[in-house]
Amino acid sequence: MMPWLSDNLLTAVIFAPLLGVAGLVLLPRRHEAASREIALVTSLVTLVLGGWLAYRYEAMAPAAGFAFAQAVPWIPDLSIYYRIGIDGVSLALILLTVLLTPICVLCSWREITHRRKEFMFLLLLVEVGLNGAFVALDLFLFYVFWEVMLIPMYFLVGIWGGQKRIMAAVKFLLYTMVGSVLMLVAILSLYFTGGKTFNLLALYDVVLAPAAQWWLFLAFALAFAIKVPLFPFHTWLPDAHTEAPTAGSVILAGVFLKVGTYGFYRFAMPLFPDAVLAVRPLILAMAVIGIVGGALVSMVQPDVKRLIAYSSVSHLGFVMLGLFALTPEGVQGAVLQMINHGISTGGLFLLFGMLYERTHTRMIADYGGIGRAIPLYTTCFILLALSSLGLPGLNNFVGEFLVLLGAFRVEPVHAVLSAVGVIIGAVYLLWLVERVFFGATRLRTETGSAVKLADLNRREALLLLPLIGLVVWLGIYPRLVLDRTAPSVATFLHLVQRTQVPDTIPLAEGPR
Amino acid sequence: MIGLEHYIVLSVVLFCIGAFGVLTRRNLLIILMSIEIMLSAANLAFVAFSRYGRGLDGQVIVLFVFVIAACEVAEPISEERLAAKVQALLGLPSVQFYAPPPDRDDPAASPTGITAWLFYALTSLPGSPTAETGPLFQWIVFNGWVVEVGLRLDQLSLVMTGVVTGVGSLIHLYSVGYMGHDKGFVRYFSYLNLFLFFMLILVLADNLLLMFVGWEGVGLCSYLLIGYWFEDPAKAAAGKKAFVVNRIGDFGFLLGIFSVWVALEGQVPDSSAALLNFEFMREMALRPDTPLLPVATAICLLFFIGACGKSAQIPLHVWLPDAMAGPTPVSALIHAATMVTAGVYMIARLNFLYILSPAAMQVVATVGAVTALFAATMGLAQTDIKKVLAYSTISQLGFMFLGVGVGAFSAGVFHLVTHAFFKALLFLGAGSVIHAMREEQRIHAMGGLRNELPITFWTFLTATVAIAGIYPFAGFFSKDAILWETLARGHVGLWVLGVVTAAVTAFYMFRLLGLVFFGSRSALSQKVHVHKEESVTMLLPLICLGFLSFIGGWLGVPAAFGGADHFGHFLAPIFLQEIGSTHASHGTEALVGLGTMLWVGVWAILALAIYAQRREWPSVMAVRFRRAYALLVNDYFVDRIYYRGVVQPLVWISDRVLWRAQDAMLIDRIGVHGTGRAMLLVGRLTATIQTGLAPHYLFFFVLGAVVLVGWFVL
Question: Are A440 and B62 a contacting pair at CB < 8 A?
């Protein structure tokens, strides 16, 4: 067992949740309550395996390329391989996923009361899909994992969501399906033009004509842009985030959106460098509109979850700005920001989910002055809000700083406009805090008596601890991510810079 | 050379002693001292690691930094209420500074929190009196660049540290009495300590980005303390407003950092140099072919936006009057003596950049002078004791900017120091009055408090005389230095503004004095039983600050008044050159100074006479000059203009256009659902074609054939 595990550690991390899935399938309905424990244990085992993976990766300290690479023929006739491997960026995203999943299981402990078995089943399936997508180095395999995470998410929103869950779920599915179908076409097209292979690393070396690149990039980019979501493909997100149960929102904001940016980073951009060059101005403009527009719309939302959801549009705009700035600072910042956003916004959704469990309202207008009743909760919320608005010393600041610096070096106007988004970020978050926690208490039960709120209990505090720890730790010591992702970013930039029309990107090089 | 392990052993031993002391719980003092010992142990380990621990990748060091910071904040929380009081007495500004040893081989650094010790250590260092810790750890590393954390203590930061810890300690002491009955006593002290931590980071940082950390950190504490009584919606809103307006300034600061980076990055052969280090920037700025010259104006103006936000200069001054919602000691410490002067400190710190751009300097000086006058006139009509002082602070900050703007950096910093003394005193005095009057803040409801609050009265009088600029009180020398430098460097217009402002300042301050302490008690508060002054913790700081307001100016008596300008000489090495300084005769200087003082004195006496004896006159004037009065009393309607002109349109656009029209209507309804409906329509159309009737299919077959044939034929 152990030697096998050691040799196939990466595979084990991806598929470990399947053990829990199997257990849940076999679990008789009358013991449904045990489904939570099964899911928790499985996700914790995955977390431990993920930790082991990180430890091994650290010991190897690979300078570049993919570690833990494996290639097993799957459908040899079509040269489809089970081909996996990780670099620093994938590792960081995997660790985020395996950390957030047990948190999601625990935060659903009491929130989900019906069909627990199915809920946990789907949640673990999403984890498989997410981790798989982050390690796949074969386009077909990537597509399979992409779909594996999509469908369970549809059910998670559609079955356990809020009032308008069906609408939100259908919208979410249609949006993403449009993208993924086009991506499938592009993958197949790439397969035939690129020498009948799905091997990503081999396809990196295939040089396509700029016109062909353009169409293929467009198909990939649409799928990923919807996922990110990039303006104007973002309108599924507020609905899905708002209607999803807490665990769904946390996973959606924390990791799901990162698959989109990761797709750009790993697939769309390095595969089609000439196309990137052509559409760069457009995507940069969309990113800036997303940053400022998302922040402004977030400001006027009457619903806490929608507000946080729109803030994601703004934050993910920063990631896209950094990626498409194509400067080392920008890309590093973007990668760091993917992780940071997962922690901060995931944490905010998690926290609000706890409050929702107590009050059953999402409307800001229903709250007010609850800070006195639940001080510990308030402190945590303010801390995460401050992290989200980019206070120096907390995690988001470094990422935003690097993205803006990277963008400023090549596109100062974009950077200046985006920096305005940082100001609005302070407005909507502090205004939210003010209306929910400060002032006079307005919260009433249906009978009109004042609601008695309980502060965080031990389980909830335990859930928040790792996130808050990371918020602080990454703010002080961002090298934890930066150092590990630097080789990957260098490779990425090298790939993206192989354009056939030289000297058209003002690629600013550092001193090295 | 002492090994690392010795330090660790020592710190562990110390830590154990401290822990033992805490566990025995003998008495409060022992517990407190034990905590300090434990902190010192952590500090010692920190220093040792920072010396040896490069290979440890900085992680351990970070942990220690955090432990210490957390302890500093947690200390008041963890202890009993009384403990917090005692702690405040012990001189809380205990975020400690590590002076590096003069001899690099012997890292016998000892932590200490006493500024006096620092002063001694610094001045006794051979050569340049600057202490630098060097890079303590590498914060951000990317693409070969490094942003490091390091502290730097030179003459300028020493002056600032002195103000922050000195005034900070006095205000801590005062707070013990003032906040003694508040429920959130412990929370208050936690915030206050956190503030001092960030403020010291701000003034001791050796690079721009670390300074920015302190810069935003003090903004955060300001937010928390203004909204300290958060159950009151107005107070919570004031906190948010302060943070947001500061954020607008920070936007400029951040872009300034980027500009510096872009200007300098091509200049370094290897990336080992820390681009944002003040020392490095100064070196670059001093080069004859400096790369900063072409962009200096833009950079300086961007930084000045930051300074405007933090130091409440027009057009970003609107947050400071609202910030008076915070507890009065907070107003004294944060919104008068320390945080709001950070903008002046920044410009003084970056003087080597500013002297590259005369245009930017002109902007700084003009904004400063105009703000000084405008804020002073707004102070004329205020009816809330703290609001008067708030506008006065804005106005005095304008003076400081005028000073640094005309290139008299040391005069600007000098005024910063004296202002910290007398303005903190004025606020604490106001706090004393408010406390005595049982939370009454309207000045028209006061009067005649001279006899009931003698100590407050005499100290308040000292501060008023000092701010008005009467010889030999503190304000005279610093204000005179600024005005004289302005005139001597040829800015006659700005000098006139300054002199007019000085008169207005004297008028509104003596108006305040007259209304509060002279005359008889207003009918509005006849029944209020005035508290006696009995809290020693409140009176002691008043007396100390009163003393400082009296003699503080003697630090920098200019040669024209028979002094030697010690202050200017002390700071001289920091400021490259006092640009455009002239050598007019001492006689002229003395004459101008005395003339200004007489001019100011006339207005002071006039104000006192009116408001102490002829209180009905102002109301008559207010009726006669209705429009002007309305303008003043409403602060020139700036708040309303911002609300109507910026806030409301922005919310409207976000709500109606961006959200409802664009997102909900255009993208969602027309785009997404439109596509969906279009699909349904196509589906239904196709479905209607499937009639199942052979003639229809035959018809389509023929139609298709015709089209195909036509295509091939034509």
Answer: no
Mutate which: A321, A379, A401, A493, vs B, most B CBs within 10 A: A401
Inter-chain residue contact B269 with A511, CB threshold 8 Å: yes
Name the pLDDT band for B713 (thresholds 50, 70, 90): confident
Q: Which of B57, B61, B67, B143 to probe by mutation at the A interface, max A CB count within 10 Å?
A: B143
pLDDT band at B192 (very low <50, low <70, confident <90, very high): confident
Which of B172, B187, B190 minimizes the C-alpha distance to B72? B190
For residues A250-273, average pLDDT: 92
Interface pTM, i.e. ipTM? 0.90
Interface of B with A in 633-662 (CB under 8 A): 650-651, 653-655, 658-659, 662
Q: Do B143 and A483 touch (CB under 8 A)?
A: no
By Cβ distance, the residue of B141, B248, B269 closest to A483 is B141
B547 by Cβ neighbours in 10 Å (0-12 / 13-18 / 19+) ranks as middle
Q: The whole model's pTM is what?
A: 0.86
Q: Which of residues 160-219 of A touch B (CB under 8 A)?
A: 171, 174-175
Q: Identify whether the C-beta of residue A203 lies closer than 8 Å to the C-beta of residue A142.
A: no
The answer to whether A328 faces chain B, any CB pair under 8 Å, is yes
Residue A289 has pLDDT above 90, yes or no: yes
Neighboring chain B residues of A288 at a CB cutoff of 8 Å: none
Compute how many other C-beta atoms are within 10 angstroms of the C-beta atom of residue B305. Answer: 21
Catalogue the E-assigned strands of B558-676: none
Chain B residue whose CA is closest to A440: B231
- Measured in angstroms, the CA of A430 and the nearest CA of chain B are apart by 6
Residue in chain B lying closest to A400 (CA) = B254
Chain center to CA of A278 = 27
Place of tokens 């009067």: B447
Indicate the pLDDT class of residue A346, thresholds 50, 70 and 90. very high
* Average of per-residue pLDDT across B163-167: 81
DSSP B326: S
Query: Given a cut of 90, is residue A44 above it in pLDDT?
Result: yes
Share of chain B above pLDDT 70, in %: 81
Helices (H), B489-563: 492-517, 536-551
d(CA B407, CA A405): 31
- Would the pLDDT of B76 be above 50? no
User: What's the pLDDT at B587?
Assistant: 81
The confidence score (pLDDT) of residue A445 equals 64
d(CA B626, CA B377): 15
Q: What is the dihedral of CA B192, B194, B196, B200, to 10 degrees?
A: -170
Of B143, B223, B239, the CB nearest to A510: B143
Does B335 score more than 50 pLDDT?
yes
Can you give the pLDDT at residue B106?
25
Task: Give the C-alpha separation, A99 to A49, whole Å.
Answer: 11
